[in-house]
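Table S2 (text version). Query chain:
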Amino acid sequence: MKKQPNSLPFMLFLVLLLTCSLAHANTLIVLDASGSMWGQIEGKAKIQLAKNVLSELLSRWPADEEVGLMVYGHRAKGDCNDIEVLIPVGSIDQAKFKAAISSISPKGMTPMTEAVRRAAETLRSSEKAATVILISDGEETCDQNPCAVAAELEKSGVAFTAHVVGFDLESAGDKARSQMNCIADSTGGKFLEAHSASELLTALSEVAALPPATPEPTPTETPTPSPTPTPVPVKAAKNLLAQLVLLEGGEPLSDGSVSWSLKTPEKPNKQVAFSHAAVFETSVPAGTYLLTAKRGEVSVEQEITLTDERQEVTLNLNAGYLSAKVFVSEGGEQLSNDLRWRVFRAGTTKQAAFSYNKEPQWLIPAGEYEVQVSWGNSNALIKGTVSVLPGESESLSLTLGAGILKLKAFASEGGEQLDKDLKFRVLSEATSLDGKREQVAYSYEAAPAFEIAAGKYRAEVTWGNATGIQEIVEVKAGEASEYAINLNAGVLALSTSEDQPTDKMHWEIYSSKTRLDGSRDKIAVKSYARTAQFFLPAGKYLVRLRIGDSAQEKEIEVTAGSRTEDSVIPASEAPH
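Corresponding structure-token output:
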């Protein structure tokens, strides 16, 4: 039977993370119970590992510290409101907590952002500092912006800190990492990532403020004294000390997280030792190894030969820092929400870094780069170029150049402006390979004004079954552009006898044109009403009134900008 890897380090990691940062604060633990938590780490379901961790945590929780438990995604599939406080913040009740934890079964979505917001609101009433611990294995799936909400909560006056633990994020991707890091960073918390039991054990030693509970010592027999052995040379306690520099001859990095890995050339997929500390110290048997270090978007690898004596190794990342910010206009407000940053090597399409933060900072290899940023749902990209030097910090400021796009809808040329039952959409000018356009903005207002990035777009307005299109609308930086869209449509109001039952009544509108097989395009339907109103493009239509198995048809013409009223009388009531 294959022996399962030891999951104890994983459990201890979360226990210590949750314990070490919560002193003198009301704490609400937020647990992801979305469907993906059935995924496995080291052969065990992530949700089961999390349950075990929380149970262990409770047994060590200080009696004078208040704590609660919130869970999301545990009751229904596809429900972004499936967020529940299972245990309100208060003095710990072991039995209640264990019963609540045992009942959790992953099912649904990941409303991570809304859960953090509700957790902060739950803690708002207390005068104590508020701490939220979020445990999640994936990205936000309920169409919210974690960065914006976290920043909003931090500014709201609540003494609020969010720490985030990411489980097995390799499959979730970089977007999940960025979202979780943003929540923690915006509120002054920590973002920690767990990949495997062994990595978690290393992280445990770095983040724990309290040591793990130690077992009672096992009694041992007093050994019989033996002859004093002959002294032998003492092996160095740690025979490797590795550090990083950003440029040749530079100062070694002394803080922050570095992903160190030590492997043998014979087994490059198996780690012999690793660390997340800025300086890597370890003891391994003498031999040849591959030493790898990764920080930010940069990694470096070097083959080293170790003996039993202590050896110091310095790796050069040959990298620098790049930060960026974007403003609405020259001298205007800095944008903070709904930003998508991407960094490319100059002249290539290879992405070197990305971020969703207000003011991202990257550590990237020295070289020339193009930085791109888009805002909201806009398909317009703002670009800038920058040169990054080893050991230096570069800052790039971009201007979005936003403008105002105002839209109005009219039933006919020079006719009455429409003011209800409208939906406006602003779409990208360019189409994708499948012919689709990306939606930039939308509104149900009568005369919307969109603040969007300067550029060219396509505007559409829908009024019932009528659609008006403005192929090209242009938005200029710092200016307001206004467009009137003509739908060339009218209103068709239909009625029938008051004597007819409505439970089997259906109004159907068809195109006046027939296909070769005699069929027609069905345009609209309304059921269970003696009157029906349709907004239709100008033209001729076939109206069919179905009552049970019988049907009555009538051809009717709709005029642009006009209301056409007509009635359809069942054959049974028609005069003979």
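Notes on Table S2: The first strand starts at residue 25 and ends at 32. The chain has five domains: 8-207, 240-316, 321-399, 402-487, 490-573.
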